[in-house]
Amino acid sequence: MRSIKFFLVSGILATLILFNFVAALQGYQSSMEEADRLFDNQMLDLARLVSSLDFSTQDIDEVRLGNDLTFQVWAGDELVAAANNAPDLPILEFSPGFGYANFNGYRWRTFTRFDTPRNRWVIVAERTDLRFVLAENVVIESVIPLLLGIPLVGLLIWFIVSQGLRPLAALSLELKKKRANDLSPILSANSRVELDQTIESVNGFISRLAKAMEREKRFSADAAHELRTPISALKVQLHNLGSDIDTSNDSYQQLQQGVERMQHLIEQLLALYRTTPEQFEANSTELDLYAITQQQIAMLYSSFERKQQQVELEGNSAMIIGDKFSLETMLSNLLLNANKFTPAAGKIRVRVEENTDEICLTVEDNGPGIPPQDRKTVFERFYRVDRGAAAYHPPGCGLGLTIVNHITELHNARITLEDSSFATGSAFKIHFRK
Ligand code: ADP
Q1: Rounded Cα distance, 356 and 354, in Å
Q2: Can you spell out the DSSP letters for 112-133?
Q3: Tens digits of per-residue pLDDT, 65-97?
């Protein structure tokens, strides 16, 4: 997953680690130089001490050395004195100053001086590996706390970055929580300067969208309203024509079906735009859902009878708060769909149940049902299930269930679509809160 937080945390941490690594390298180098200086000074002191000794009278044991230090004193070719761990031959050519030599299996730092009063060469030597050990100890001591601190620093950076990105997370949550039909502007109460431009742009976009939707809504409602009158006039003319000509005529039949379909679409469009939240608020009353359902079944009885369908109503009276017109539209859409999609002699069952926390209205049939993959999309505008070319497609415009869903939302209810309790078919359930 590409995440800004991950990018920032890993980027900052990697920079810190790199910086610490370079600082440790630098530290190692300067510690080495410091150790060199220190040890060189020690060697100078030792060389001075050895020079000051008169080995004919003083015991060599006065120069107490560890294994890491050694010395030789040469008078010409003669070895005047040497530490126990010194080689038998000269450590290196006699030449004053610092140098390096290899013996006893180690590399040694050497210092040679000519002791003029006694006319002899003094060579002192010290193992170089010890200098590294010292420098390494200094670096390790300074690097270990840094290494151990990396997880803690990582956590701190994670916390700071999370805090810094909080306004962004809050904005994305606000956008996510926004319902599809909520076109109110985004509040920028806890926003940061960096997000102001984005919020302004999104709000500008929402406002343009709201205006466009309002225009579309007004246009559709106006157009549907304006078309209603000529359609009614057409229907009257068609009826009159029917008494003059043979109504089984093919053109007449098609004309009649076309006019019916147009009227259905116009009525659905009007229903969609007439059920607004404002209307719902104004017309909300206490209603008996069972009684309204009974009335709607009675109103549509001729349609069921025409297809010899059996309609059952189960349940008892159940009171809900709602808008009567919207509920009637919702019921008639569900009932007419059941009537339309269920074949002749099919079964339709309607139930109004009161449970402890909800009142549930179920409209189910033993028709072809709705495949699971279409159960969400059927509520979208103009969506119709594609059942293949060979299947029977009753006339319709794909707005019925959109209206049902819209009215359900207005009533703060929830709609579910399941298999019916018959062998085939679908069950639409509207759950009203109590
Ligand atoms: P319309 O009925 O005008 O096509 P709807 O929005 O009412 O539009 O329904 C959308 C689609 O859902 C329908 O085209 C149909 O494929 C499917 N549908 C709706 N109700 C039923 C039902 N009772 N049985 C089978 N399919 C249905």
Answers
A1: 7
A2: EEEETTTTEEEEEEEETHHHHH
A3: 778 899 999 998 999 999 888 999 999 999 999
Count CB atoms within 10 A of the CB of residue 341. 21
* 406 neighbors 350 (Cβ within 8 angstroms): no
Which domains, ranges and CATH numbers included, belong to the chain?
6-147 (3.30.450), 188-274 (1.10.287), 278-433 (3.30.565.10)
Residue nearest to atom 7 of ligand 1 (CA): 400
Q: Is beta strand 414-419 parallel, antiparallel or unpaired with respect to 347-354?
A: unpaired
Q: What is the rounded end-to-end Cα distance, in angstroms, of the chain?
A: 43
Maximum Cα–Cα distance for the chain, whole Å? 156
Please indicate whether residue 329, judged by its CB atom, sits closer than 6 Å to ligand 1.
no
Q: What's the 402 CA to ligand 1 centre distance in angstroms?
A: 10
CB of 422 shorter than 6 A to ligand 1: no
pTM: 0.56
CB count, 10 Å around CB of 369?
Answer: 22
Model pLDDT for residues 169-216, shown as the tens digit of each residue:
888 888 888 876 678 888 866 777 888 888 899 899 999 998 998 888
